[in-house]
Every structure is written in C-alpha cells, then in structure tokens.
Design goal:
This protein is α+β, with helices and mostly antiparallel strands. Helix content is about 25%, strand content about 30%. It has four helices and eleven strands; from the N terminus they run ββββαββββαααβββ. It has helices at about 50-70, 140-145, 150-160, 165-170, and strands at about 5-10, 15-20, 30-35, 40-45, 80-90, 105-115, 125-130, 135, 175-180, 185-190, 195. The strands form five sheets. The protein has a three-stranded antiparallel sheet with strand order 5-7-6, covered by helices on one side. β9 (about 175-180) and β10 form a beta hairpin. α2 packs across α3. The longest helix is centred in the first third of the chain and has 22 residues, at about 50-70. The radius of gyration is 26 Å and the shape is elongated. Residues about 1-15 have low confidence and may be disordered.
Length: about 210
C-alpha cells in the first residue's frame, strides 16, 4: 500500500535545529518531494500504487463519457445507458460493461476513445456508446423459466425489447408481467427475468453503471 512510515530526525545545536529525512527502504529520492524553512519540513509522498493508477483511469473513463454526452447535446436530466466495446485490452478497465448492448437498443452516440498511458501500462482504447434505456431479459433465467425452450426464450426477449419502457414499468408495478408469445403465456418477474435497464442484466462485477 505504499510507504507508510516517514521518519524525521532532529539535531539540536546551540543556535539552530537541523531537520533531516530518511528514505523508507526500497524507495529513492525521486519518490518524494521535500521543502521547508527554519520551522517546518514538509515531505510529499509521490509514490503511486496500482490502486491510485486504477482510480485515475476510472476518472478518465467517466470523463470520456461526460464529453460524449455533451457532444450528443444531452442534459443532466437525460437518462442514458453506457456501454464499452473494448478495442485494446487493459486490466485498468476490466469489469466495466462491455458487449452487453442489446441489438434493439437505440444508439444516441458513440466514439472511439482512449485512456491511461503506455508509461504505466494502463493504455487502453474502447468505443464509448450511449443508448436510450431499454428493457431486457436475463438469458439464463429466461431460458430456465420456459423449460429450456431456446426459441421461445428468444421470442420473449424480442417481445420485451420492443415494448415501451415506461408502459412496461406501469404494467409490472405488481412485480411481474405476463407475455403472450407464440400462443404461450410466459410470466416474467422483475429482477429475475425482466429488467428495466440492459446494464442491470449483467452481474454486478461487469456493470459500468447506468447514467
């Protein structure tokens, strides 16, 4: 977690105090910056660990999406979903939403962008995509609910994707809806088979968030 112990030594003379700084083991003078006067010595720790690097890249990712929102003419009141289509892989952005955009999602804007740097090994590029929020189903749960009938599960997914989001929310106010597809009635439970955000369908570790 980085150097946590910085030791200062004070040498008391007859007229003045001399302040010295001893570097922690394994670090060099380039990892710190120090300055002071006759009263105070301030030491700034410049050592950067992987947690700080990852946080910096995450801020860059957010910045790219904010800029894309602005280019698209969106306001803070406009709700969208964001997706990432990775171009070059980087551990710094693993776990963010990728390739989860449903085929029926309406794309508002997309842009190829990059984050990180070659110097610290965090360089990565990806296509940032903004879409209109849309309902979706969780494939594995949907397949289980129709006893493994893949064709029916796909048809229900298409049916849900074509529904108006707000109308579907009202219909599912009780916690579920019944879809009539191919002459069959299929019950979808909110949070199990049915979701009002395509990003929410993914497991938590894969979500980049809905914005």
């Amino acid at each position: 977690d980085g150097p946590a112990y910085l030791r200062l030594f004070y040498f008391v003379g007859p007229r003045s105090v001399m302040r010295g700084f001893k570097l922690p083991e394994g670090l060099t003078a380039d990892d710190f910056n120090a300055n002071g006067d006759d009263e105070v010595l301030t030491v700034l720790d410049l050592w950067v660990d992987q947690t700080l690097i990852a946080a910096g890249v995450a801020r860059e990712v957010v910045n790219r999406f904010q800029k894309l929102r602005k280019k698209a003419g969106l306001t803070v009141m406009d709700t969208v979903e964001m997706f990432y289509q990775t171009v070059t892989s980087s551990a710094s952005i693993d776990g963010l939403v990728a390739s989860l955009k449903p085929s029926h999602a309406v794309v508002i804007a997309s842009e190829l962008t990059s984050v990180g740097s070659e110097e610290d090994g965090t360089a990565a590029s990806f296509t940032a995509i903004l879409t209109v929020p849309c309902p979706a189903v969780r494939p594995c749960a949907m397949l289980a609910s129709v006893s493994g009938d893949a064709a029916l599960a796909e048809a229900v997914g298409i049916y849900v994707g074509r529904r108006d989001l707000e109308a579907l929310k009202k219909e599912a106010a009780g916690g579920s809806i019944t879809a009539n597809v191919d002459g069959k009635k299929v019950t979808l439970t909110v949070g199990k088979e049915l979701f009002f955000s395509a990003g929410a369908v993914a497991p938590p570790a894969q979500r980049g968030g809905d914005h």
